[in-house]
Amino acid sequence: MLSEKTIEIVKSTVPVLEKHGEDITKHFYATMLKAHPELLNIFNHTNQKIGRQQSALANAVYAFAVHIDQLEKIIPDVKLIAHKHRSLGIKPEHYPIVGKYLIAAIKDVLKDAATDEIIQAWTEAYGVLADTFISIEKEMYEEAESKKGGWRDFKEFYVANKIKESEVITSFYIKPKDGSKVASFLPGQYISVRVKTPGSEYTQIRQYSLSDAPNGEYYRISVKREAEEHKPKGIVSNYLHDFVNEGDTIEVSVPAGDFVLNLDNKKPLVLISGGVGITPLMSMLKVASKEQPERDITFIHAARNGRYHALREEASSLGAKVLFCYSDPTEEDIAAQNFDKKGYITSEWLQEVIENKDADYYICGPVPFMKAVYQALVDIGVKEEAIHYEFFGPSMKL
C-alpha cells in the first residue's frame, strides 16, 4: 500500500505529466532500447517511429497519477494492456528494466523539478503498478496455458490456406504444426503473430484479429497490406502477403483481448466496421448468427468500393440485416447496385437504417472512421456505455 504522503506527491505531478508526458516517454523508450536492444524483439518498431507507443504510455502514466488514490478505476485499462502484454510475451523480469528507465526519464526531462522526494514517490508508485500488472498477467498466462488446446508464449503454426479477399486483404488459415487442436477464443479476440523478416536483426510481433468463429481446428486472420504512400509501410503485413505461403510456418500466441461480444445481452446487435476493421466483427457476426438466431442483428460495413471489400459474400450469407457503404464506388459497383450508400456513414443515415436504437453497438476500423461513427451514434441518442470499440495498436480513447 502507498502512504498518503506518496499519493499526495504523485498527484501533485499530474499537471507536469499533462504537459511533459510525451517528452518523458520518448526519452524513456530511446534510452531503454539503446541499453536493451533485445527488447526490440517485443516492441512494435512502427508504433515507435510514428509515436503511438509513446503517446499511449504517456496517457497510461497520466491516468495512473490521476487515479492513484482510486486505482480500482483504472483496472479495466490495466487489464486491456495486460492482454496485450501476455500476447507479446512480457514477463515479470521486464518490469524492473522499464521502471529503471522510466524513473530516469522523469528525472532527465524534469531536471531540477524532479526532486528527490518526487523520484522516491514515483519509484514506490511504479512498484505498486508493476506488481498489479505482474499479478494480473500471471493469471492470464496460467489461463492461456491451462485451457483446452492452450499453450504458453508462442507456438509454431503452418499456413493451411491463403486466400485473397480483396485488393488489399488476404486471409491466412493457420493450424498447429504439431497437429493439436487450437484453443477456443471469444469473438473479437486477436492473436499475436511473430516472424523474422528478411534483413531484420530482430523478430517482429503484430496482433491480428481472428476473423472466423471458433472451430477447434484452425485460426483465420485476414490481413490488410499496409502500403499507402502517406503511411509507414507495414513490415509484417507486407511480409505475410509477399513471402508467407501455404505450408510456411509462423509463430502464434494464444488468443487474447477483451473487445469481445457479450452474448448475455439480448438487445438488438449493431456491428459497424470500416476497412480491415471487419475482422473482429465478422467473428462476432458469425457467432451471434449461430448462437442467437432470434436476435435482431444489423451489420454495417464501409469500404472504398467493391474491389476493397473483403468477406462480402460471407457477411451477406449469415441472415443478418447487412448494409454496405462505399465512399468511392466503381462503375461496376454502380451498375450492379451492390452497395446501400455512397459516401460516408452519417448520423442521418444511421437514424434511418437502425430501427431500434436501444441496441448493443460494436465498432472497429481506422481511427478517423471510429471517431466519426462514435459521434454519429451519440448524435442519434445512443448511450456511450452501449458503444464498444477497439483500436488496432496502442490503446486510445475516442
Please explain how this structure is put together:
The chain is of the alpha/beta class and 398 residues long. It folds into three domains: 4-146, Orthogonal Bundle (Globin-like); 154-253, Beta Barrel (Elongation Factor Tu (Ef-tu), domain 3); 269-390, Rossmann fold. It is built from 13 helices and twelve strands. It has helices spanning 4-12, 14-35, 45-50, 52-66, 75-88, 94-110, 116-146, 235-243, 278-291, 312-316, 331-336, 347-353, 367-379, and strands spanning 154-164, 169-176, 190-195, 204-209, 219-224, 249-253, 269-274, 297-303, 321-326, 341-342, 360-364, 387-390. A six-stranded antiparallel sheet has the order 4-3-6-1-2-5, covered by helices on one side. A six-stranded parallel sheet has the order 10-9-8-7-11-12, sandwiched between helices. Strand 9 (321-326), helix 11 (331-336) and strand 10 (341-342) form a beta-alpha-beta unit. Helix 2 (14-35) crosses helix 4, helix 5 (75-88) packs across helix 7 and helix 6 (94-110) runs antiparallel to helix 7. The protein is globular, with a radius of gyration of 22 Å. The chain starts with a helix and ends in an 8-residue tail after the last strand.
